[in-house]
């Protein structure tokens, strides 16, 4: 894929490759486009585009960490410090932390093969379960970490063809890469209050091929703030656009059940099961997610029948 000439094209290109699970091409595009990321180009982004860039950065950095590309990590951190854009700087800071956590996990697993993922919070210097879980997930997607189900968790090990590379690579310390241990950036957290203008919200709802992960971030904020109608509209936009992720479905079926909107719950579940039967790996047939949705569909249909008979 040819590198885009501006930051808008970069974000669109990263989104397409992210949705297609083309991780090597994703990193290649980002590295080739890095020289074009400067203060002027970033400052032209509106709030929605900053969110979108932040979503892609949340994947860029764990991938760079798994690839031991500390040089690129440092280059982007340097850029963020000169950008004077708090949202972008926060995204980079948190992503660098994620990268350091990923590298730390790989080195720990290399020295302790077979350790259970659920035990890592007690064994590592950075114990946040959510970040450890995310780091292990992406490392396994890149096939630099093997996860074998065991004892209600995963036994972790480094693949044979990666062992020497992980063992020989220098382990970046959290202090060297970041200097402290920050909390998640407010703009990227579901605890942050929603802050989109009506115009920005409208652009976020515009059709996009395979959906938009930035919608899920803002939808979670609106949902937590009690503005469920807006949250539903954002999640529904991803269902409409065929997003290759189960997150929107998970939230929608819960919101619709709470609201007593059983017909909508059944519609969304049926859509997800249909995607699974069509070969979408986000809802893989026979997986725990598929079976749970199937049971939920049966229950929703039973509740609807009882309501209609009442």
How does this structure look, described?
The chain has 16 helices and two strands. The chain has a two-stranded antiparallel sheet with strand order 1-2. A hairpin with a 2-residue loop joins β1 and β2. The N terminus is likely disordered. It has 310 residues and is mainly alpha-helical. Helices cover 64% and strands 3% of the residues. The chain has two domains: 182 residues; 112 residues, Alpha Horseshoe (Serine Threonine Protein Phosphatase 5, Tetratricopeptide repeat). The longest helix has 26 residues.
Report the major sheet. 2 strands, antiparallel
Number of strands: 2
* C-alpha-based Rg, rounded: 21 Å
Shape: globular
Instruction: State the share of residues found in helices, binned by percent.
Output: 55-70%
- Quick check: average pLDDT? 76
What's a concise summary of this model?
With 310 residues, this protein is mainly α. The chain has helices at 7-19, 23-33, 39-43, 47-66, 70-83, 86-111, 120-123, 129-141, 163-168, 174-177, 198-204, 213-224, 228-240, 247-259, 262-277, 288-309; strands at 146-150, 153-157. A hairpin with a 2-residue loop joins strand 1 (146-150) and strand 2 (153-157).
């Amino acid at each position: 894929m040819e590198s885009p000439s501006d930051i808008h094209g970069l974000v669109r290109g990263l989104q397409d490759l992210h949705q297609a699970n083309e991780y090597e091409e994703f990193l290649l595009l980002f590295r080739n486009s890095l020289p074009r990321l400067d203060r002027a180009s970033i400052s032209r982004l509106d709030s929605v585009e900053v969110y979108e860039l932040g979503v892609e950065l949340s994947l860029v950095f764990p991938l760079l960490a798994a690839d031991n590309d500390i040089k690129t990590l440092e280059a982007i951190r340097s850029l963020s410090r000169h950008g004077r854009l708090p949202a972008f700087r926060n995204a980079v800071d948190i992503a660098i932390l994620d990268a350091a956590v990923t590298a730390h996990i790989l080195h720990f697993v290399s020295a302790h093969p077979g350790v259970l993922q659920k035990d890592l919070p007690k064994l590592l210097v950075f114990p946040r379960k959510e970040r450890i879980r995310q780091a292990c997930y992406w490392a396994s997607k890149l096939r630099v970490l093997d996860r074998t189900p065991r004892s209600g968790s995963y036994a972790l090990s480094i693949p044979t063809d990666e062992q020497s590379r992980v063992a020989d690579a220098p382990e970046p310390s959290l202090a060297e890469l970041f200097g402290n241990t920050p909390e998640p950036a407010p703009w990227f957290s579901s605890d942050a209050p929603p802050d989109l203008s009506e115009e920005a919200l409208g652009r976020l709802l515009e059709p996009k091929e395979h959906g938009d992960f930035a919608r899920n971030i803002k939808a979670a904020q609106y949902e937590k703030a009690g503005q469920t109608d807006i949250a539903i509209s954002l999640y529904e936009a991803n269902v409409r656009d065929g997003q290759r992720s189960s997150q929107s479905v998970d939230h929608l079926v819960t919101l619709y059940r709470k609201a007593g909107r059983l017909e909508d719950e059944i519609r969304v579940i049926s859509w997800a099961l249909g995607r699974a039967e069509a070969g979408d790996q986000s809802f893989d047939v026979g997986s725990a997610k598929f079976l749970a949705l199937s049971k939920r569909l049966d229950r929703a249909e039973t509740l609807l029948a009882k309501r209609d008979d009442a």
